[in-house]
Amino acid sequence: MDYKKRRIQAEIRGDFQPKDDDVYQHDGLGYRANISYTDQFKTGIGEIGISIGYQRQDTTAPEDYYNGNATFQPCNTSAINGGLATGTAAALITAGASLNCAQTTVARTAIPTTGSPAINVGETRGDTYYATSSRSFRTQQTAEVRDAVIGALQWRPSSQFEVSIDGQYSKRSSLEKRNVLAIAEGLRGIQPLLIGNGTNGYSPGALISYRGNSNIEDQLENRQRNEEYLGGGLSLIWRPDQWTISADASYSSSHRTETQKATRMRSTTRVGYTLTYERDNVVPNVVFDNFDVTNPANFLATAATAVYARNRFVTDRKDTIWAGRFDAQRQLDGFFTSFKVGARVSNHDRTNDNARNNDLATIPGTAAQAAAIITAANQNCRAPFTTRSYFDGDTNLNRFATFDNDCLFRTFTGSDDALPYPTDGRDPSDINVRERIYAGYGMASFRSALGETPFSGNIGLRYVRTDIRSVGYRQAYLITVDPTADTYVVAVDPAGALTQNTRKGRYSYLLPSANVAFDLTEKLKLRLAGYKAISRSGIESFGAGINLSPGPGTGVNNIILNATTGNPNLKPLRAWNADASLELYASKDTLLSVAGYYKWVTGAVIGASTPIPTPITVTTITLPGNVRQTQDLIINPVAPANDTETRHLYGVEVTAAHAFTWLPSPLDGFGFNVSGNRAFADFKFPDTSPLSTYLEPANLIGLSKYTASGSVYFEKGGFSLRGSYRYRSSYYKPNGGTNRSVRGAGYVNLSAQYDITKNVQLKAQALNVTSTKDVFYKGGYDSIAEVSNSGPQFFFGFRVRM
């Protein structure tokens, strides 16, 4: 009811993505369209306002990927002939080609065949380098459709009272068809040709060029994601005299599912190759020995275990949130201008059913029958390559053989509907968490003068309490013990049942705050603030499931179960904050500000580091004789923990803006905005991968030492043109507990709009016009873990208001 008039607005925005235009059978085009209607009515029961809108988006998300796998391993061995892919077992060992690289101080030996004596591995030892277990080159076809309806009803029976009701329903469907060429055995037979040492132009440990041999795989995958959201709220406002009293209640429910159907074809034999990062390229060149990677006939390993089919329910996530709020504010006269109190309560239930798999790892039947099925799949399921511009030619692997995933799945399993999902999807990785938050606050605003200097601000205190309840599962485990050999094997007990585990957590904090602004002059303002704040951990961190790592071990008197779990007792990140800024409004067209901040931070969440004593019951079998018994054990699953040290984050930010209104027309339409930030911090997140002894702990997640942005614009006569640049230096972005970082990068965006009339506006926009890539590294700036590139995006459209 703020518009006081009827309004109908429609906007259509088309998009063109060159990278999607290069995708097979795609044209790069998409759109987003929305329409809304707003109106007000005066009735016998008061003023009524309504608003309803609908939006639909049909687009794609093209992207090229290169992945070096998150699992990096330190090695110092160098195979004598790492590219040797075929030959006798003894010949391969003598060449050093059949073993994975390793970090070792002694010569290694290996047994060629059962019963034969061990022979020396053909390798030397040298500088340490960081190798990865696999390397993959991925293209994809994508499609995404979103629909949303939103509506609101407002009723104002009097000037003192109003009621609002709003709601939203939306759904999203997206599909990725992935096509991956994989060097599946990235550690096998490594023969380094160039290792970075910090003085040769490359970071220490970076494996810049090497020889090796591996099975080459074409991995296909279809990922379907569906999301549905329903939410609404009720709001009441009452304004008697000097009071403003408000309350609202809200509810939302969302459901996300993601399914995966995957297959694989494998090279007929292992292949020798040479991999090299050329000059500044972050996507490597790969030269295969006598292997045409574009020929589908070369992907014809016919062993029953050479291919697979997978039907996987990756995610079934449900979130239900309800919340209530009450606020009361009283206007005052004097030093204190108002006082406000309020209360909040919210409840978030998250369930996530993870990883319900049904895998076909072996083609059934005789060896001849399996070979016939795989041969038929190779001949009948070949497909055109996905794109014409994989990484825009930055690598020589810009084309490789591929297959139709649905055709392979159908051929391997016999049906599109084969491999149904397991009916019982319970798993230790599942999430079932309830997070309930209670909060109350009081705040007083004030205004006065210190001599000739006016000032204003507020002081307040907030109380927050959070209760966590988490339900998880643990599989039954069977430990087979051989006292004679002093060995054991931990495995899932097929005869056992899942055990449910319930854990709870709670925390509460008082959060004071104060801020004040001084009008030093008409053009100069000083702002000061001090406050305590918290930042909660993601709800998925509170999982109570316990994962034991199956596998063999030695030492029957010290059985290691390698258990991991979540931590419902995680506390939020807490910080005392001090902020100050000085703002100079030199004229109506000029702003210059300098701001500084300092934060004393405790409780940052560190990856798995705290053992949590947990009683469990396991079944053991003792050899010989297969004596079976149950045992009660106390295990210590490792969970995420809060950093007990006080860390520091501080920095300075400078902002400047100016409009050149003093220049003659049309130059008076130009202006600019610039800002820059320099941040410092002393956080320490230790690496948990095999590289941990070689790497320094990482700093604060997502923190760039340097960030900067700037824009130049022209606004005059209904025209608006703007060009902007955004830069951030490298920052830490972990992946699965490993300390992975993102290289610094800059992005250029352009936009334009023109008002044809006061009701019709044309718009155009170009994002990432320089096609900047996202580059992730691990262990060193040149040790590439992942590269992705979606290319530029162009948008064009119009808006009509009536």
UniProtKB/TrEMBL annotation:
InterPro entries in UniProt: Beta-barrel_TonB, Beta-barrel_TonB_sf, TonB_rcpt_bac
Residues of the TonB-dependent receptor-like beta-barrel domain: 267-769
GO cellular component: cell outer membrane
Subcellular location(s) of the protein: Cell outer membrane
Major site of localization recorded for this protein: membrane
Alphabetical keyword list: Cell outer membrane, Membrane, Receptor
The keyword Chloroplast appears for this protein: no
UniProt xrefs under Pfam families: TonB_dep_Rec_b-barrel (PF00593)
NCBIfam families: TonB-Xanth-Caul
Protein's name in the database: TonB-dependent receptor
